[in-house]
Amino acid sequence: MNELVKGDKIAEKIYQVRGVQVMLDSDLADLYGVQAKRLNEQVKRNVDRFPEEFRFQLTKEESENLRSQSVTSSQVSQNAMPEGERLRSQIATLETDRRGQHRKYLPYAFTEQGVAMLSAVLRSETAVRVSIQIMQAFVGMRRFIQNNAELFTRIGSLELRQLQTEKKVDQVLDAIGTQEPEPKQGVFFNGQIFDAYRFVNDLLRKAKKSIILIDNYVDDTVLDQLAKRRKGVSATIFTKTISKQLALDLKKHNEQYPPISIHTLKDSHDRFLLIDHDVYHIGASLKDLGKKWFAFSKMDQAGLKVIDKIRSHWPNEEDG
């Protein structure tokens, strides 16, 4: 694929759904040069790699809203076209609408992490190159929103009149005034070792009461990272097995630094980092950060289930 898709063509396919930026399966399939059916089949074969923070199915209402936005945008842009081009565009829109009528399922939306995971699932050079372009478009979209925050604030002020109480208004204004909101999701690529370690270390330093790491691959470098936490913050690791070397490293660590406890947990495949009451899904073991592509996401309701599950496994009789 000698000529890749232009960034603005990708950006116009990024939507805001449920508070996050997403792309639809049909648009992604078009960019990757595959059928939407094949794309979703590959995802289903690797469904454990696509939690709800990576991919979710739109509701009927969400799908109709996006369809309405696309039609309105198309109509506005057509007004500036020459008559011949406008006619061709209308024909293309009608053909697209006909295809949409025969779709047997509601569209799936992929977040930025889901796009990163798609390149690994589709396993083609084109998928990797296009995924990089798409994620660059996601980054560009976020920068655009940040750079034009004042304009959006002015537009949003018209909607503030609909709020019922002054307290709600204050909450909205506080949210707008936050210059650097904590990222809820993102992707690190191979070579971004320092950036990835700095991000995780910032999370560890943020903890006020406790840190819980669920990771099947732990070594002494992870103990070093946890040693950077605040004074008085407890640290607990759940891992698949506790080797003799890890047990020895832990013993030496605990003789010098605030102690870390380690327990066995054989039920988890993915990695999770619990900072107080916040739960992060981490796509790589802490000891391997930045060595390969990985995504992270801050979980919402699903994170509460992780907290409940980990409580049921604590402590384990086999713990070291």
Give your account of this protein's structure.
The structure is a single chain. The model is unreliable at 72-101, 163-169, 175-180 and 316-320 (pLDDT under 50). The protein has 3 domains: 7-139, no CATH class; 148-181, no CATH class; 188-312, Endonuclease, Chain A (2-Layer Sandwich). It has helices spanning 7-11, 25-32, 36-45, 60-78, 83-101, 112-122, 125-147, 149-160, 166-177, 193-206, 220-226, 244-256, 301-312; strands at residues 15-17, 20-24, 55-57, 108-110, 185-188, 210-214, 234-239, 260-264, 271-275, 278-282, 294-299. The longest helix has 23 residues, at 125-147. Helix 2 packs across helix 3 (36-45). Helix content is 52%, strand content 16%. Helix 11 links the parallel strand 6 and strand 7 (234-239). A 7-stranded mixed sheet has the order 5-11-10-9-6-7-8, with helices on both faces. The protein has a 4-stranded antiparallel sheet with strand order 1-2-4-3. By secondary structure, it is an alpha+beta fold. The protein has 13 helices and 11 strands. The chain is elongated and about 60 Å long.
SS summary, helix count: 13
Question: What's the number of extended β-strand segments?
Answer: 11
Sheet of most strands: 7 strands, mixed
Report helical residue fraction.
40-55%
Q: How many individual domains?
A: 3
- End-to-end CA span: 53 Å
- Summarize model confidence as the mean pLDDT: 75
Poorly predicted sequence stretches spanning 5 or more consecutive residues: 72-101, 163-169, 175-180, 316-320
H/E series, N to C?
A: HEEHHEHHEHHHHEHEHEHEEEEH
Structural class: alpha+beta
Q: How big is the Rg?
A: 23 Å
Overall body shape: elongated
- Name the beta content range: 15-25%
**Largest sheet, order of strands side by side?**
5-11-10-9-6-7-8
